[in-house]
Amino acid sequence: MKTWLENNLANYRAEHKDWRNEICHFFGISIIVFSLFVLSFIFVPVFYCKLILMAVFFWLALGGWRGLIAMFFFIPLFAIGFNYVNSWQWALAIFIVGWIFQFIGHFVFEKNKPAFLKNPILLFIAIFWIGEIVAFYPLWSKK
Q1: What's the whole-number mean pLDDT along residues 131-139?
Q2: Nearest of 77, 70, 38, 35 to residue 55 by alpha carbon
Q3: Which of 30, 68, 78, 83 is the most exposed place for a label (fewest CB within 10 A)?
Q4: Cβ proximity of 56 and 50 under 8 Å
Q5: pLDDT tens for each residue of 65-92
Q6: Number of alpha carbons in the 13 Å side-chain half-sphere of residue 101
Q7: Which long-range contacts (CB under 8 A, 24 or more apart) does 78-83 make?
Q8: Rg of the chain over CA atoms, in angstroms?
C-alpha cells in the first residue's frame, strides 16, 4: 500500500512528464526554496535557525530518504548563497525568477496548469521530488 507521500508524489509526477518542464522545475523549485530561506534570514534572523530545524525535521520525518537527499542538496546551497544575496530585493527577485521558470515549464512545455492549483499540498511535495531527481538523475535521464 502506498503512503501519503508516495500518492502525492505520483500525482506530482503525473503533472510533470516533459523533460524540459522537469528541468524548469528543478531550477525553479531550488531557486524558490533558496529565496524563502534568504528572505527569512534577512527579515527574521532569530526565526531563521528555527526554520532550518523545522525544514530538516519536515524533510526527514515525512520524506525519509527523499528528505535526506533534499536536505543534503538544499543546505549547502543556502550556505553558499548567503555570501552573495544579502538584500531582500535580490531575494525577492530570485523568488520571482523561480516562479517564472515554473510557469514556463507548464505553459510552454507541458501545456497544462500548475499542479498546485488543483492540490496546494503539492507545493511541499515538490521538495521531495527534487530529492528523487538528485538521487535518480541517471535513471530519469534515460526515459
Answers
A1: 68
A2: 70
A3: 83
A4: no
A5: 777 777 777 777 776 666 666 788 888 9
A6: 18
A7: 78/34, 78/37, 78/38, 78/52, 81/34, 81/38, 82/38, 82/41
A8: 15
Instruction: Return d(Cα 141, Cα 123) in angstroms, integer.
Output: 24
Task: Tally the C-alpha atoms within 13 A of residue 24's C-alpha that lie toward its C-beta.
Answer: 20
Q: Residues 11-58: pLDDT tens digits? A: 888 888 898 998 999 899 988 988 887 887 777 776 666 777 777 777
User: What is the number of residues in the chain?
Assistant: 143
Report residue 56 as a C-alpha cell.
530538516
- What the block records as the C-alpha cell of 45 is 534572523
* Integer Cα distance of 103 and 97 in angstroms: 10
How far apart CA 105 and CA 88 sit, in angstroms, is 26
Distances in Å between the Cα of 14 and the Cα atoms of 17, 43, 61, 75, 129 are: 6, 36, 24, 28, 12
What's phi and psi for 6, nearest 5 deg? Answer: -60, -40
CA distance 19 to 2: 25
Residue type, 80: I
